[in-house]
Amino acid sequence: MNQSHKNKPLNRHQEEILNNLTCWNKKALLQNIYADYYNLINGYINREIPGHIIEIGSGIGISKKFINGIITTDLFPNSWIDIVCSAYNIPFKSQSVSHIIAFDVFHHIQYPIAFLKEAYKVLIPEGRLIIFEPYISLTGLLAYGLFHPEPIGWKAKIDFSGNPVDPSNYYAAQGNATRIFLKNEASELLNNWKTIALLRFAGFSYLLSGGYSKPSFYPIFLYPLLKYCDVFLSKFPNIFAVRCLVVLEKV
After folding, report:
1. Which of 178, 206, 222, 235 is the most buried (most CB within 10 A)?
2. pLDDT tens profile 145-161
3. What architecture (CATH level 2) is domain 11-135+150-202+243-250?
4. What is the largest CA-CA distance in the chain?
């Protein structure tokens, strides 16, 4: 299936969250990989900026292990979630948030303009929006297209309307961050933002870990070697990159 979205019960999100939590608790390799990802994110958090640090779509809530003081949010009231809300209605006062983190969430946001407007509203001046997403290179196209259940949506129309029609729909298009932030398909979305970072990097250490849905293809003691290989392959992002980090600052 190569559709960008399809109407499905919203409880599919919750099913995925519970399955991911079971996998996370059993898989030390995955925990190490995500510790490095969040360490990268921590490097773009400016603690001198006052305000709340919040995460949109926190899923199983692992960000609490890596980012001090983070406020977790999600669509479902699980015990590790601080606030239940959607990405289109963030319940914080205007200019009261210093950082918004969206880890593997942006490709589930069907109306990116509405989300960016809401993020802009609650962020203080110089507040940051940190987005961590799949990247669609040649490797990414093969890996996510063949082995990941969510669609890439590479040719699908992105809905740039400002008002969500039905924010409860299940939506996924893994290529959206690549298209919007790195292929400049909608550069006008970023008129009120300063780009702090656009990083693309290889992630064979993650792909071969099996992620949340498949068994690992290598033992944990080989993780440092796989990381070294990723550093080298990241020099050729159009071929090998499978992850991207986008950091925007409110101006």
Report:
1. 178
2. 988 889 999 999 998 88
3. 3-Layer(aba) Sandwich (3.40)
4. 48
